[in-house]
Design brief:
Number of helices: 27
Distance between the termini: 33 Å
Radius of gyration: 24 Å
Structural class: mainly alpha
Order of helices and strands: HHHHHHHHHHHHHHHHHHHHHEEHHHHHH
Number of strands: 2
Strand order of the largest sheet: 1-2
Length: 547
């Protein structure tokens, strides 16, 4: 993930399927011919400019984000601040504001986008930015957040048996992070030595610098020496090829692996000290403090580096980056809205250009390929070899045989990819979904999403079984009255696939019912609740209703 797209995808090469899971909802299904009014949406393509991110991908929401503290920027922002403090002449990180366990535990508890083991990883890094000996503090924070046991179980489980659907770089990055986390928690002795040896062997074969660097460092902490053999082979030529020869974060990692900083690399990396991603800035600053070699050196310049652009607050936390970046998740939702409104041929030029550039970017993170491929497929764009690889990866994904609470994110991501590429249902079982409290005829929002993706992937019989005894049209009307557009949209899609009768007056009423969900400044964009600002997901939900 060249340009930053998704925080873990770029830096830790997180699982591509997991990146899909937070976004994908229903498609419009069959449901017999009915007369419907001509839907709005003629200006949708142009109004997507309101959701255009600084990286030319679609933003999740028109609301500016980035002012609240979050776990990921707190982890790497504190590390960057501590590094800058030390290289101003301080001996340690005591110049960085301290962090209390309670607010850090609150961040860890509320970060629902990351799994417990990843949250534990960020807690350990945040405390490492305070100084040495963080094990006791990290354990206390995770215990307070209710995550300690789950995080340890997840980390150990993955190290012993990595997810078979993960590509090699994703697996390496995840194992390195989880070994670091278990070391931080004082549990590295529970990791089998054969597992550690396998990680060292995979590090030598890795073809990307960032995960290789983290694996080398994680293994060093448990007394194992590993070398990033393949990454270092030809590194001099790549680094000498100019600033476009390697992505800044990869150039920084290569520099740290080689422990040599040339003047060319120094000149290429300094601008990235203002990158919006905190981990990129931290790795770049680390690389810029490496001692130089001979006459071609930038060594000794660390003290003159610019101050960090991020700020550690007085409570020790760090806010999200103020840069308004788009994501592939939101871009895929926008693509679905464009196709639902028959506007895909009017896809904004800036978005087509960005997608095709990503498709040709040899440095694209593996975790970005799947969503890139899905987006390009939806818009009928030829985006290049990276998107082609993503499509092939989708065909190799295996859906879990049964949906469980533990595998729900991965299950949903695989099913959504199968739906997009028409790969069929696959062999999977789903138990009866949750009903709304106090109403046995309504499904929960989570259950509706499951039903819809099942149907979209071709599991029609299962979807019909799961909706037996429901009154989904009534639920859709009630959701719209209560101000929940995405749930209303999913209820209608579920009603279509279950062949529940949808009266003509609902189709007639929908444009009026959705009017109060329109963004006041950009009326062809929609908000999740009345009076809100537009979001990509709500806009997708609206056009699926209006299609």
């Amino acid at each position: 993930m060249g340009t930053h797209v998704d925080r873990r995808g770029r830096v830790l090469v997180a699982v591509g399927v997991a990146a899909v899971t937070a976004v994908l909802g229903a498609s419009v299904f069959g449901g017999g011919p009915v007369d419907r009014p001509v839907p709005p949406g003629g200006a949708l393509a142009g109004q997507l400019d309101a959701l255009r991110g600084a990286n030319d991908l679609v933003r999740a929401t028109r609301t500016d984000v980035g002012r609240d503290p979050a776990l990921y920027p707190t982890a790497y922002g504190r590390l960057e601040a501590a590094l800058a403090t030390r290289h101003r002449g301080g001996a340690d990180a005591r110049g960085v504001p301290g962090i209390r366990p309670a607010p850090l535990a609150d961040l860890a508890r509320s970060d629902v986008l990351d799994t417990p083991a990843w949250r534990a990883h960020y807690v350990c890094l945040a405390l490492r930015g305070t100084g040495p000996a963080v094990s006791g503090g990290a354990v206390a924070v995770l215990e307070r957040a209710g995550l300690r046991k789950r995080a340890g179980r997840e980390a150990l489980g993955y190290l012993r048996a990595p997810d078979a659907t993960d590509d090699a770089l994703t697996s390496l990055a995840t194992r390195a992070a989880f070994l670091q986390t278990l070391t931080c928690l004082g549990r590295d002795g529970e990791v089998p030595r054969a597992t550690v040896r396998a990680l060292a062997a995979d590090t030598a074969r890795a073809g990307q610098a960032v995960p290789a660097l983290y694996a080398v460092e994680a293994l060093r902490a448990v007394g194992v020496r590993a070398r990033a053999t393949r990454v270092l082979r030809g590194a001099d030529a790549r680094l000498a090829a100019g600033c476009t020869g390697a992505d800044p974060i990869q150039r920084a990692a290569l520099t740290l692996l080689r422990q040599r900083l040339t003047q060319r690399t120094y000149d290429c990396l300094v601008p990235s000290l203002s990158d919006s991603d905190t981990q990129t800035r931290w790795l770049v600053r680390r690389a810029l403090t490496v001692g130089g070699e001979g006459g071609d050196t930038a060594g000794g310049t660390a003290g003159s580096l610019p101050e960090p652009i991020g700020r550690v607050r007085s409570d020790g936390l760090v806010a999200k980056s103020p840069a308004q970046l788009g994501t592939l998740t939101a871009t895929y939702n926008a693509a679905r809205a464009l196709t639902a409104s028959a506007q895909q041929k009017r896809t904004p030029y800036w978005l087509e250009r960005r997608l095709t550039r990503m498709g040709s970017d040899t440095g694209l993170e593996p975790s970005d390929r799947l969503l890139l491929a899905m987006t390009c497929h939806r818009l009928a764009l030829t985006c290049g070899p990276q998107a082609d690889m993503g499509a092939r990866e989708a065909a190799r994904l295996r859906v879990p045989t049964r949906l469980t609470a533990e595998n729900e994110r991965r299950w949903y991501g695989v099913m959504a990819a199968r739906a997009e590429f028409g790969l069929g249902c696959g062999r999977t079982a789903v138990d009866l979904p949750e009903r709304e409290a106090g109403d046995s005829t309504a499904l929960s929002a989570r259950s509706l999403r499951i039903v819809v993706v099942l149907a979209d992937a071709g599991c029609t019989a299962q979807a019909e079984r799961l909706t037996e005894g429901t009154h989904l049209v009534a639920q859709a009307r009630e959701s719209l009255r209560e101000g929940d557009l995405p749930t209303a949209s999913d209820a209608v899609q579920a009603a279509l696939v279950s062949e529940q009768s949808i009266p003509q007056d609902l189709w007639d009423d929908l444009p009026g019912l959705l009017r109060r969900y329109r963004d006041t400044r950009f009326p062809d964009l929609y908000a999740s609740s009345p009076g809100g600002t537009a979001s990509a997901d709500a806009t997708r939900a609206a056009y699926y209703l209006l299609a």
